[in-house]
Amino acid sequence: MIPYGRQDISQADIDAVVEILRSDFLTQGPSIAKFESSITEFCGVRHAVAVSNATAALHIACLALDVGPGDMVWTSPNTFVASSNCALYCGASVDFVDIDPQTYNMSVDRLREKLEVAQAAGNLPKVVIPVHLSGQSCEMEAIHALSQEYGFHIIEDASHSIGGSYRGSPVGDCRYSDITVFSFHPVKIVTTGEGGAALTKDDELAEKLRRLRSHGITSDRRIMLPRPDDEIWNYQQISLGFNYRMTDIHAILGISQMTRLREFVDKRRAIAARYDAAFAQMPVKTPWQHADTQSSYHLYPLLVDADVCGKTQKQVYAALWQAGIAVNLHYIPVYRQPYYEAMGFKPGYCPEAEKYYRQAISLPMFPTLSETDQEHVVAAVAKAVGVRV
Ligand SMILES: *Cc1c(COP(=O)(O)O)cnc(C)c1O
């Protein structure tokens, strides 16, 4: 089977991990700071806080922005459930802004309309979480302008988009957001096995994120409460945090992987260009790219509209599996999950996200996908939609 995504592990990656096993630190050692520096340097941002996974990063990002009971968080319905669950972990409520039919990202027009309504009703969101689907940045300048007008914070869920850029600057520079989150799950652009990071240019937020990552404990005397016996080994828990730390075993793999980030993204872009060319003459829709963005192509969603194609998404999906291609669907709108429907969300809530959900198929997209395998994928799509090649 050809998977839709998989990691690219080199001998250097393996050597780095083996070496760390013989070193003094398996966790809380020097590799974490080095991995964080490799991210801050690449993205041109002051702080990166490496954590156990992106879900943890989203959780502490919400907490660092003081999301709690009574607060509202908005995100895209066209995402992995973690983008939304993070708000629920904090006791906040969540709502969804429909997507743009061209980019498949949160629609700025729908966001503006929804903000106007929320302002009138007095229930504006505290945080909005745009998700850069498949590696293509959202229209961050416009979303940021709305955040200034309506007074909300922004967390970019950039789980798909390390290595992508927006208006010539790397995703992760936090120019238009408070915090940006990356995932290092094996199907994402670079991997640590499990892993994530929260990035910010704000010193105070970085301090909060670091503390939340490790039990709410600090040994920074500037923020510790003065104690009569000023013991030198003193540390204090000053907030309620978690153990969301990344291990040095994961971080060393991340350091090694980061040296190939540009290579990974170049390979993904080359694969996308070949798909684009191959599908240009077929009755299917390839991912449209906004002129302001350069995608890192975590995913390559191909859209099958039964009215245009004569075949349904399900038929094409099944035919590809039959041909040994393990395609996938990203995503079922979050609010269509049974857990969310039980909260009162109804089918049809975000019509564009549902339309996308009824058409999208994620084709194989990963750096080690061979040209032969890619040709097999293209031929299988052609056959499934009834085109001769
Ligand atoms: C993968 C992913 C996450 C969660 O990442 P983990 O590192 O697996 O916790 C969150 N949001 C999006 C959009 C993702 O694709």
Q: Mind explaining what this structure looks like?
A:
The chain has 389 residues and is α/β, with parallel strands linked by helices. It is built from 14 helices and 16 strands. The strands form 5 sheets. It has a 7-stranded mixed beta sheet, sandwiched between helices. A 3-stranded antiparallel beta sheet has the order 8-7-13, with no helix packed on it. A hairpin with a 2-residue loop joins strand 7 (165-166) and strand 8 (169-170). The longest helix is centred in the last third of the chain and has 19 residues, at 261-279. The mean pLDDT is 97. The site of pyridoxal-5'-phosphate has 14 residues, from helix 3 and helix 4.
Low-confidence stretches: none
- Which bin fits the share of residues in helices? 25-40%
Instruction: Count the DSSP helices.
Output: 14
Q: What proportion of the residues form beta strands (DSSP E)?
A: 5-15%
The H/E string reads EHHEHEHEHEHEEEEEHEEHHEEHHEHHEH
Structural class category: alpha/beta
As a whole number of angstroms, the C-alpha radius of gyration is 22 Å
Q: Which hetero ligands occur in this complex?
A: pyridoxal-5'-phosphate
Sheet having the most strands: 7 strands, mixed
Euclidean distance between termini CA atoms: 22 Å
In total, the number of strands is: 16
Give the overall form.
globular
Order of strands across the widest beta sheet? Answer: 2-10-9-6-5-3-4
On the 0 to 100 scale, the average pLDDT is 97
